[in-house]
């Protein structure tokens, strides 16, 4: 087949690669056509075209006035099947992973950067230990120790009969009950281990394009991307004018442009082994702590040996977590399989030996009171608070040389979010323990000792109403400010539309209110700071209160003034109810999302924002979809431009604009001269630039502007997510931001718009006439090259054979 020739009036083939935002989209809606064909990809993420555009490269004369549209759909990466609903349980892990990426920029201070990463990874490790400890509390203490050891409780639940202490069965011995109950937290750790390994194989295994670090010959495809050995040799494609600059050394590139940024396979495998071992060791420590007080003779010697093994393995886990962070300067294909395998299996072996040791008969040992869990939860709370404070100190040192007033919380966004992750984990673990305790205690209430969780959880429950009251003040202030801003913006709205007739106060009020509500996004740092600071202080108060009451169940508020004790008890009861209600709501939402696709898409929006970043701190966090999406986009842009010599504009909306920018950073210099970037409704600066300044801060976005010749950004004042990127004009490059788009496009009824136009906010940017004008201007600035001989077996030439259609 003869090679395609460019149409003289268009300057060569042109392609628009559309990337949707959060919440997902179908190729039919993106391409505005019910007939679509998958060009390349699979059922998880793929590139689609309209059926009539499948052979567009062979008929460029049809597309003289517009580019060929393609749609990259990636929504199934985060909101696919029903199992995604289970990811709700991994929310604290996802939040702490975000804290890793929120550090301030730091050039020439690698020591502080490494220390920041180590502290975040240690906070993440405490979350794994806390979740496992909460499972141990429910299974070992509340169920096997307290309920099975009390006749009133065990008689009420027949499934506990074989464990009941008063029935004298083989399993009724305290140590054997605990060893059997340890299967529950062990199964939880195994499940997290399995899920992490499965997602690691599916997400972190996506290799980015390789071989484009060295200068590529004109027209030559980079290594690993070029035609197959059986394909015809491509014709030479001259360099575009002006000449493409030489590649930037890897160490000088922005982080998102480094070859190994989107390939964290080695680190995730390493952390997975360490966190799995930490979970097993937590279960073993719970068993050892319960039995050590009753060991004598040979049992005591064996117990000491097991405790020494636990300490040694715990030190090894800390060494693994602290020793190595991410490697981004190259695609690191190594996986330390010996470390990844032997560490968790060794910990599991020690846990098995500990369970056997716990089952050893101990004459005279009866289950009374509670297991010593208060000390463990108190130590975890203090460790988390200390690590967050240390993380804040490091963040302030990193932020000091360059203070950007727009950076969220003056560089303390990472520590604040890490504190939120600890709070979420505490609420979830405390909610489970409190609900199970209330459930078990309900059947035998008043007939025996009360079944309850550690006293520290009661104190933590009592501070939840206080925290909510503290949030009422900033929430009320924001509501009042929004109303005042809406009134203040009314003259500006009328001036923007320059209405000659009498203005409509209702229409003006709605537009002004939309603009005022959109501005609430910029106040998010205030709320995050208030919640994080209050959580830190109230958590410390809970530890002090639990210690002052002697960690004795039922005496959480002893010693206080009667009025204070009554108030605290009421707050504790209310907080306990709120924790339980929140946990039940959490589970209900997850079950609904498992069955309902619309609810699953809502959860998918949460993951779209939270799982953009690779798993650098916690291996059990939901996987990073960008490690699949960014290589997909990079491969598509490189192969299409090298094969056709045409022009390409990658068009990203909302979160899709972040993916598009990340993919452009990964392009080799020879490809960037034929690619333009169009972003709209983009959170690049408004959210990512403020919260992730080291990667999307002002210098990074200006660097992206210098990296690519053509970039334009559209935004509206009514958009609560997107905004300007604030990149000024430089040399021969114009400013990136277009003028603020009017929303709605018409104030009242006009000949072009006889019916009232809606306020679109964050949606339907392509409906604005400015969108097509900006896209055309970007394509006009790109200089196409002479197209090469294309492979007749390439995806763009194969028609719909073997592909699914929409």
TrEMBL record:
<feature type="transmembrane region" description="Helical">
    <location>
        <begin position="375"/>
        <end position="397"/>
    </location>
</feature>
<feature type="transmembrane region" description="Helical">
    <location>
        <begin position="115"/>
        <end position="135"/>
    </location>
</feature>
<feature type="transmembrane region" description="Helical">
    <location>
        <begin position="457"/>
        <end position="480"/>
    </location>
</feature>
<feature type="transmembrane region" description="Helical">
    <location>
        <begin position="178"/>
        <end position="195"/>
    </location>
</feature>
<feature type="transmembrane region" description="Helical">
    <location>
        <begin position="342"/>
        <end position="360"/>
    </location>
</feature>
<keyword id="KW-1133">Transmembrane helix</keyword>
<feature type="compositionally biased region" description="Pro residues">
    <location>
        <begin position="229"/>
        <end position="248"/>
    </location>
</feature>
<feature type="transmembrane region" description="Helical">
    <location>
        <begin position="85"/>
        <end position="103"/>
    </location>
</feature>
<dbReference type="InterPro" id="IPR029058">
    <property type="entry name" value="AB_hydrolase_fold"/>
</dbReference>
<feature type="transmembrane region" description="Helical">
    <location>
        <begin position="273"/>
        <end position="292"/>
    </location>
</feature>
<feature type="transmembrane region" description="Helical">
    <location>
        <begin position="417"/>
        <end position="437"/>
    </location>
</feature>
<keyword id="KW-0472">Membrane</keyword>
<keyword id="KW-0812">Transmembrane</keyword>
<feature type="transmembrane region" description="Helical">
    <location>
        <begin position="568"/>
        <end position="590"/>
    </location>
</feature>
<feature type="compositionally biased region" description="Low complexity">
    <location>
        <begin position="208"/>
        <end position="228"/>
    </location>
</feature>
<feature type="region of interest" description="Disordered">
    <location>
        <begin position="782"/>
        <end position="806"/>
    </location>
</feature>
<feature type="region of interest" description="Disordered">
    <location>
        <begin position="206"/>
        <end position="252"/>
    </location>
</feature>
<protein>
    <recommendedName>
        <fullName>Integral membrane protein</fullName>
    </recommendedName>
</protein>
<feature type="compositionally biased region" description="Polar residues">
    <location>
        <begin position="790"/>
        <end position="806"/>
    </location>
</feature>
<feature type="transmembrane region" description="Helical">
    <location>
        <begin position="524"/>
        <end position="548"/>
    </location>
</feature>
<feature type="transmembrane region" description="Helical">
    <location>
        <begin position="298"/>
        <end position="321"/>
    </location>
</feature>
